[in-house]
Amino acid sequence: MRTALVIGTGLIGTSAALALAGRGVHVHLVDHDPAQAETAAALGAGTDRAPEGPVDLAIVAVPPAHVAATLAEAIRGGAARGYLDVASVKGGPRRELEALGVDLTTYLGTHPMAGRERSGPLAATADLFEGRPWVLTPTRDTDTEVLNLALELIALCRAVPVVMDADAHDRAVALVSHTPQLVSSMVAARLQDADETAVRLCGQGIRDVTRIAASDPRMWIDILSANPGPVADVLAAVAADLDGTVRALRALDSGDDGRREDGAAGIADVLRRGNAGRTRVPGKHGSAPTVYETVTVLIGDQPGELARIFADAGRAGVNIEDVRIEHAAGQQAGHIQLMIEPTAVPSLIDTLQERGWSLRQ
Questions:
Q1: Are residues 188 and 124 part of one domain?
Q2: In a domain, 285, yes or no
Q3: How does pLDDT run across 211-258, given as a tens digit for each residue?
Q4: E strands within the chain?
Q5: Quick one: 19 and 142 in the same domain?
């Protein structure tokens, strides 16, 4: 691949363009808002000048509702040798293209499983896709050359190719992406009118659950409008669990010992099923999840403190597998949780105490 055309210079399109441009591909940028394409070009993602002829690969990075029309225009105009989109829904756009009578041999639907709470070209990074799954949904009609171009794109972005059926993909993302967004937003919505004293008690748990609630509503309306059925199916199952959990909690709140036992059993059931489901979430590098030990350290809110604690962990010969930071309310300090292999705990604790860190049990 020597040339590419990125249509849509939001987070995903600009990030792909930055990755390609950084690896020597000449990238052309187009957007319905010329200012966005100019911004992406200024960031080093390519040029906002139109290509003089067909490029090797056209990447359509527009909202799902506009994918089919944008692809049809590009394909009929002969913009490239191969075409793909990066929308988070795959079945609907393909059926729309078929209804438009477009030749789909040069088209391949794809979806990089990466994103951020922020949108737009200024949120883009060249390493957004590194190590992340990138779904391909080829059909029997997909031209081999187009598949090879898509695989080259994924390799240049340092992502991991995953081949799926389009409708199976849509059911999967309804479970692992679209429903979590809605649930996160529903929990965060409870905070809107909450008493200020309650909000001041927010800790890492509520921060974890509501992190993605900061996402752009307009973007998610586009996504959910393209995949409503599968998302509704998952939410219906969640709603059944919520209803059962509410009944169990009401039973726990009753004065009847028998009902209280039933309520406790109901709560235990949903928590255990949650434990079992959580263990299926892939761990580091996509491997089976690993149980790490957590070492919690009090850390000041001054420049260089994070670098210092990481350096001290390095002196102990300990690899930090994951990190979480919980800021202390009303103080210039917080707690940093270092997730490490269980066998490394004694060495890390000894070194951090020797270096003057205050540890929390």
A1: no
A2: no
A3: 889 888 988 898 899 899 999 999 999 999 999 999 999 999 988 888
A4: 3-7, 26-30, 55-60, 80-85, 107-112, 133-137, 160-163, 293-300, 322-327, 333-340, 358-360
A5: yes
The domain in which residue 314 lies consists of 293-360
Q: At 168, give phi and psi (nearest 5°).
A: -65, -40
Of all helices (H) and strands (E), which one includes residue 153? helix 144-156
The residues near 132 (Cβ < 8 Å, ≥ 6 apart) are 112, 113, 114, 159, 160
pLDDT tens-place string over residues 47-71: 999 999 999 999 999 988 899 999 9
**Are residues 244 and 266 in contact, defined by beta-carbon separation less than 8 angstroms?**
yes
Both 226 and 245 in one domain: the answer is yes
Q: Does 212 lie in the same domain as 349?
A: no
The pTM is what? Answer: 0.76
∠ CA 131-308-333, nearest 5°, is: 95
Same-domain check for residues 179 and 135 = no
Instruction: Please give the C-alpha separations between residue 62 and each of 25, 32, 70, in angstroms, as whole numbers.
Output: 21, 10, 8
* SS3 category, 59: strand
Mean pLDDT calculated for residue range 311-328: 84
CATH code of the domain containing 244: 1.10.3660.10
- Whether residues 122 and 7 fall in one domain: yes
How many residues in total does the chain contain? Answer: 361
CB 82 within 8 A of CB 75: no
pLDDT at 290 over 70: no
